[in-house]
Task: inverse folding
């Protein structure tokens, strides 16, 4: 049976409601949020770390952070899954920077990694947002769009970006900051 990354019964709105309840320390809402999203978040973490054991540990830390920071979620700024995915990505990159990680696994529990399909009720909204994002990315100066993709899709660190684009680290930080601001402005039009 092909499972989507998010349970089909959970929409963006229902996940937002779960986060509101989690912010009020509702443990049953947290459990439901975990069940609805852990496959997607594990996939994000694993794609960067390529080690199941470390990915599972990092995922636990991600959910602790979601529990602690749920009150800071703002549905007007991001969808619930985007907000949680950002936490997962950032925590994972911190792990990469902090530690020398063991080699990738030969034996992976692929039941935890599922395809990138979307829940049917989210597909239209997500495809519209993706088209707008692609359009906004084309508005960035040439190397900056590629840099944003490398940072946020491939999980490259700032140091890796500096080496790849042959620019000082400070320049990379400035380019990332300005590019994100530009993308946010474009997406909000």
Result:
């Amino acid at each position: 049976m092909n499972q989507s990354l998010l349970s089909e019964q959970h929409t963006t709105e229902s996940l937002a409601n779960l986060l509101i309840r989690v912010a009020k320390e509702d443990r049953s809402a947290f459990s439901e949020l975990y069940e609805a999203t852990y496959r997607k978040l594990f996939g994000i973490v694993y794609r960067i770390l390529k080690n199941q054991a470390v990915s599972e540990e990092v995922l636990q830390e991600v959910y602790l952070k979601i529990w602690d920071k749920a009150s800071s979620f703002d549905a007007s700024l991001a969808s619930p899954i985007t907000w949680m995915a950002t936490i997962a990505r950032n925590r994972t990159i911190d792990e990469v920077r902090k530690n020398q990680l063991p080699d990738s696994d030969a034996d992976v529990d692929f039941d935890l990694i599922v395809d990138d399909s979307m829940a049917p009720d989210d597909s239209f909204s997500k495809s519209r947002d993706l088209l707008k994002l692609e359009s906004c990315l084309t508005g960035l100066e040439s190397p900056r769009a590629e840099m944003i993709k490398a940072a946020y899709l491939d999980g490259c660190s700032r140091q890796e970006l500096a080496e790849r684009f042959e620019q000082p680290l400070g320049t990379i930080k400035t380019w990332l900051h300005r590019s994100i601001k530009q993308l946010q402005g474009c997406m909000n039009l």
